Amino acid sequence: MHPILFKIGNFSIYSYGVVIACSIFVVSSLILRQGKKEGFSEEEFFNLIFLVVIIGLLGARLLHIMVHLAYYLRHPIEIIAIRHGGLAIQGGVIFGLLAAILFLRRRKLPILKTLDIFALYFPLAQAIGRIGCFLNGCCYGKEINFFLSVRFPFDNASRHPTQLYYSVSNFSIFLILFFLYRQRKNL
Predict the structure, then answer these.
(1) What DSSP string describes 101-162?
(2) Which residues, 6 or more positions from 126, have their beta carbon under 8 angstroms from its beta carbon?
(3) Most buried one in 31, 46, 72, 150, CB count within 10 A?
(4) Quick one: average pLDDT of 133-157?
């Protein structure tokens, strides 16, 4: 695990944040490129991606706060302390999806065609993001004595590196979807 990538003075740059930012950048670029190939306006698609990312991050934070509401009621200032962690992917997906649908309806753009493009690249975003989880040392698996186990520093126990399992499985899903998407006219 390597939660802190580097420091600038007293300011820490966290691996998780850097990996998530890279994931957002890479996947947003690929979605934008695919949207252009499919005949969408680059400006319209950029605006949609920007909206989905912002609302998705807010939704991820909101769900995390709701799940741990008792803690945040006792420590309300921590609500804005995102550097201490606290995103729930389910909230990001739900809120991002709702924002996308509302945007697409308002702009009278094809919802299913657009969501197909986003769905194609979502597993890639997850695959990259889970590497951030591994570097951060979160989202780990059960303690086990197994040749693939990894020692996590918080308790020095050998555990399943579930983050890496998720990363590999999501990347595999992405490859399958990418192949099927390219072959869709022949299906």
Answers:
(1) HHHHHHHT--HHHHHHHHHHHHHHHHHHHHHHHHHHT-S---B---TT-EEETTTTEEE--H
(2) 89, 166, 167, 170
(3) 31
(4) 87
The DSSP secondary structure of 39-95, one letter per residue, reads T--HHHHHHHHHHHHHHHHHHHHHHHHHHTHHHHHH-GGGGG-GGG----HHHHHHH
Q: Residue type at 146?
A: F
Phi-psi region of 9 (alpha: psi -120 to 50; beta: other; left: phi over 0): left
Give CA 41 to chain center in angstroms: 25
Binned at pLDDT 50, 70 and 90, residue 169 comes out as very high
For residue 187, pLDDT over 70 is answered with no
